[in-house]
Design goal:
By secondary structure, the chain is an alpha+beta fold. The chain contains eight helices and eleven strands. The strands form three sheets. A five-stranded mixed sheet has the order 1-6-7-5-8, with helices on both faces. It has a four-stranded antiparallel sheet with strand order 4-2-3-10. Helix 2 runs antiparallel to helix 3, helix 2 crosses helix 4 and helix 6 crosses helix 7.
């Protein structure tokens, strides 16, 4: 199936995330703690924790730091209790935005998220106001020039739901969240290395935003992503 040209958007997002490396450890530690508290500290029995630990290793986090935070979350060490809260809202030109947070202070977090929306041209919505425009799924993106037939064969054999080829030659593999790890492992074992591999909220349709509006939208997204309690920001804007 053909899809939109997402490659430029994905590369742009990756570049901005790379600029914010300092925040990545904080986010990954919270993800490790929430995953371990919810599903236990055994990597073999907890897929979400396995993915969080993979992210931590990719960010060059030391093994003892990873272990210490798993121990905190499972009660072996004293730690902070984080809860997950999702906020939804609208950005410039009515673009849909989802903000996933992990916080030890719900009042502080909602105030900061609401302030960011209102100050930078967006609006906070109610629960469910935009989530229906996104699909919770595993997403693996391969650079233009990757051998499409091979990716498609391996991915579908391993349980992927769909393989999309974008206008610019990038290939996107979509999976159910539960199948993400198996599909990713199969593709990597076959020598197909994705540029992006994550369980995400993928926009079903995108809104093109250009010029001054695109700059305003990017500012709003940057401010939201820079909030201490924010883990991830998803949107349907093609900037």
């Amino acid at each position: 199936m053909a899809g939109h040209s997402k490659w430029a958007n994905i590369q742009h997002r990756k570049g901005r995330q790379d600029e914010k490396r300092g925040k990545i450890w904080t986010r990954v530690i919270r993800e490790i703690m929430v995953a371990a508290r919810a599903g236990g500290g055994d990597l073999n029995a907890n897929p979400r924790l396995r993915l969080a630990v993979e992210k931590a290793k990719a960010a060059n986090m030391p093994a003892d730091t990873i272990k210490r935070n798993i121990d905190k979350a499972t009660g072996n060490l004293e730690g902070v209790n984080y809860e997950e809260i999702r906020y939804e809202g609208y950005g410039i030109a009515g673009a849909a935005i989802i903000v996933d947070t992990m916080t030890d202070n719900r009042v502080r977090t909602v105030a900061e998220v609401r302030h960011a929306f209102s100050k930078y041209g967006g609006n906070m919505g109610t629960e469910g106001s935009v989530a229906f425009q996104f699909k919770h799924c595993g997403q693996l993106v391969f650079a233009p020039g990757t051998e499409e037939d091979k990716v498609m064969e391996v991915a579908l054999e391993a349980g992927a739901e769909d393989v999309l080829s974008d206008e610019d030659g990038a290939i996107e593999v979509l999976t159910a969240p539960a199948d993400f790890e198996a599909v990713k492992n199969a593709l990597e074992a076959a020598g197909c290395k994705p540029e992006v591999a994550e369980v995400t909220m993928r926009a079903e349709n995108t809104i093109d935003i250009a010029g001054e509006d695109a700059a305003k939208m990017q500012k709003l997204l940057d401010v939201l992503e820079d909030l201490d309690d924010v883990q991830a920001v998803y949107h349907n804007a093609a900037l």
